Amino acid sequence: MHGYQRRRRKRVAEINVVPYIDVMLVLLIIFMATAPVITQGVKVDLPQAEAEMMPEDSDKPLVASVDAEGRYFLDIGENRDEAVDLLALANMVQAQLKTTPKAPVVVKGDANVRYDAVIQLMATLKAAGVPTVGLMTQPEQ
């Protein structure tokens, strides 16, 4: 009866890593797809506490405004009270920054303006080459 003895199988002590690799690849694809969405946005240097006055020795600031209806204005040139589109505003800002590159740029928005209109203005200023954009505020009474 010795010929019929069963041989004992050696146990396999390996971990099957294929499911873990599949999960990691799916997570990698998810993070690669969501990372560009997360990083989009306009960088704004907001004051830490109360708004500070601009230094007296700084250049005259460029003031880009948006009114309650969402129309855009720039305080340079002859037609300061005429609304301009964003492309014309970007061209005027670029031209002004060539002559006075250190001039600060400030956004003045109506309190009732849509948030999107302010973001579009700030994105346009950034695309025009403005390094930092300030937000104009009115002191509290």
UniProtKB/TrEMBL annotation:
A Pfam family hit: ExbD
Keyword terms: Cell cycle, Cell division, Cell inner membrane, Cell membrane, Membrane, Transmembrane, Transmembrane helix
Keyword Transmembrane: yes
Mode of membrane association: Single-pass membrane protein
Cross-referenced Gene3D superfamilies: 3.30.420.270
Cellular localization per UniProt: Cell inner membrane; Cell membrane
Transmembrane segments: 20-38
Oligomeric form and interacting partners: The Tol-Pal system is composed of five core proteins: the inner membrane proteins TolA, TolQ and TolR, the periplasmic protein TolB and the outer membrane protein Pal. They form a network linking the inner and outer membranes and the peptidoglycan layer.
Family: Belongs to the ExbD/TolR family.
HAMAP family named among the record's database cross-references: TolR
Protein name per Swiss-Prot or TrEMBL: Tol-Pal system protein TolR
